[in-house]
Design brief:
Blueprint: H1 2-14, H2 19-35, H3 42-67, H4 75-89, H5 96-122, H6 126-144, H7 154-160, H8 166-181, H9 185-195, H10 197-202, H11 207-233, H12 244-254, H13 266-285, H14 290-312
Helix pairs in contact: 2-13, 3-8, 3-11, 3-12, 3-13, 4-5, 4-6, 4-11, 4-12, 5-6, 5-11, 7-11, 9-11, 12-13
């Protein structure tokens, strides 16, 4: 009995910052289940996970950058590049579909690493660099595909965006990979450099390398989000990633990821993305105007930031 109480005490302490987002997400899931009967059916879970996963992947990428004390205003543009590349190269390279997917993800990683190198080399604020590169990558996406079009192989769409919750499985794999990365020196350096860059440097950690690695991971996740959007639509769109910039920040903030760096969890970020997805679906089903949806998102963000501060005070 004593061991059980100790376990739950540790569990609640570890999740102290995300209990509210978990409760709010559960509440909206209940409402979603009432409005959309059969929520627990496999095909229903598949549809929900497909609509949630692109934002979840982009939010995880944003959370990585926020953990190192930065912010990425170009993440939506990278999502668009991942989408148009998926509709352009997958199934059209000598390496086949697998080679095309690797090329899409590698492009995202290269974009992120380049952004990280610019920030470390020029010593400029991340918000300035990513704001500038957001225009650059938007232009690149439009050069690749000026208008919506292209095509993703139907067999790939059916396999990953059909009636099987493949997106949920990919999200679980990403969470496991994140947990394992946090056990490595590189993962520890990522969080340490965001929490206390000077202390991390004095401890012998390569802060610049950790920042570049964080941006590379973020770019990969953004490209993955664009890949899944292309799977859902069966085509590419050079501007489809624009809403994901602010929505990814929103999901990360809802998940208790601090703007100051070094604080936050991926499970909270995923819950924040799920809350946004389900909240918008519920409001849309109830016939609430899109204007009020934006207002609701803003109020939710204010509440997510203010409530923990008020509790600490």
């Amino acid at each position: 009995m004593h061991a059980s109480r100790l376990y739950w005490s540790i569990f609640w302490q570890r999740n102290a910052g995300v209990q509210g987002i978990f409760a709010a997400t559960l509440l909206f899931l209940v409402a979603y289940g009432i409005l959309f009967p059969g929520l627990l059916r496999v095909d229903s879970v598949a549809k929900l996970s497909q609509s949630w996963f692109p934002l979840a992947a982009a939010a995880m990428g944003q959370a990585v950058i926020m953990l190192v004390g930065g912010i990425d205003l170009a993440i939506g543009a990278v999502v668009s590049i991942g989408c148009v590349l998926s509709a352009t190269v997958i199934g059209r390279t000598p390496a086949g579909m697998a080679g095309g997917i690797v090329l899409v993800l590698a492009s995202g990683a290269a974009i992120g690493a380049l952004t990280g190198r610019l920030i470390t080399a020029l010593q400029l604020p991340p918000i300035i660099v990513t704001l500038a590169t957001s225009f650059v990558w938007t232009g690149v996406a439009l050069l690749i595909m000026p208008t919506p079009g292209g095509e993703v192989p139907a067999v790939l769409c059916d396999a990953l965006a059909g009636d099987v919750p493949a997106a949920l499985a990919v999200a679980l794999v990403l969470m496991l990979a994140w947990k394992l990365w946090m056990l490595t020196p590189q993962g520890l350096a990522l969080v340490a450099s965001g929490d206390n860059p000077l202390g991390a440097f004095r401890s012998g950690l390569n802060v610049r390398r950790a920042l570049v690695a964080g941006y590379a991971v973020s770019g990969t996740l953004a490209a993955l989000a664009g890949f899944f959007i292309a799977l859902q639509t069966g085509s590419g769109d050079p501007t489809i990633g624009a809403p994901y910039t602010l929505n990814s920040i929103t999901a990360a903030v809802l998940g208790a990821v601090a703007f100051t760096g070094g604080q936050g969890t991926m499970r909270g970020t995923l819950a924040g993305a799920l809350l946004l997805t389900v909240m918008i679906s519920v409001m849309f089903f109830l016939g609430i105007s899109a204007f009020y949806q934006y207002i609701a998102q803003g109020l939710v963000i204010i509440a997510a930031v203010a409530i923990p501060l008020l509790r600490r005070r």
